[in-house]
Design brief:
Two copies of one chain form a homodimer.
Chain A: H1 8-11, E1 16-20, E2 24-28, E3 37-42, H2 54-75, E4 79-84, E5 93-99, H3 120-140
Antiparallel strand pairs in A: 1-2, 2-3, 3-5, 4-5
Helix pairs in contact in A: 2-3
Chain lengths: 143, 143
């Protein structure tokens, strides 16, 4: 396993691990404003998507798409946002976030300025559905 | 071709077209603060990555990775940022942005709050290298 000293995604899972294999893990991030926030974290300390072999890249992106599908199927979000940034933690990880037209930043990216405060009931309703998303993910991904 | 009324990416290219085939186009966006900003825009009006067939999705992501490779090879950026958001324009498009540790927002996402003003000479140096990036992309992508 390739690890880098001082990298927080090498040192700890980085969230609640919903599924993993020998190459990557799928995390659910505990974010107050965006409850349906998942991450796909590559196990090895690799900086960019293009550092992966073709097979590894395909696997990584297949899992990203599978997370997207489960979020769409079970939460009916307004939009899915996908991003691989890694400016702060340059260890390959994908953000997969279900966005709703009522969320604090929509239609702005989650990294921008809040436009409103989301209603607690709406956030709670999404949060209550996450175990079903997690189970669907576990069922959809290879054992 | 699937088009949607009122969609700006159905109505116009959305930037300087560097390369295209029958399924997608690669654009260079004219952004003052982030000169090495490319977009991969799917031709059909499709909202999410998971709406594509497996073959189309693989093609789309292969092109995204090829843009990433050309940016890395020719600009040596600090980081590549990839994102498919589409909250404002829900027509599948990927942002591929070369980030530099001196740019206005680094290490924050480009959609956040500026941390500094980038120096004109550094922006100009990146801008001057873009024709080489475009040529490399045209050479790397299938004819």
């Amino acid at each position: 396993m390739i690890r880098a000293a001082g990298c927080e995604l090498c040192a700890s899972p980085g969230g609640h691990v919903v599924w993993s294999d020998d190459r990557l893990r799928v995390l659910r991030v505990d974010d107050a404003g965006f409850p349906a926030f998942y991450r796909v974290v590559w196990t090895d300390h690799v900086g960019e998507l293009s550092d992966l072999s073709d097979a590894d890249r395909a696997h990584c992106l297949d899992v990203v798409v599978q997370v997207e599908r489960c979020l769409r199927d079970h939460l009916k979000p307004t939009k899915i946002n996908l991003a691989s940034l890694g400016n702060v933690v340059p260890h390959l990880h994908w953000h997969v976030v279900a966005r709703f037209d009522w969320d604090s930043h929509f239609p702005q990216p989650i990294w921008g300025v809040a436009l409103r405060q989301a209603r607690t009931e709406q956030l709670d309703a999404v949060r209550a559905a996450l175990p079903v998303v997690d189970s669907a993910l576990q069922a959809a991904l290879p054992r």
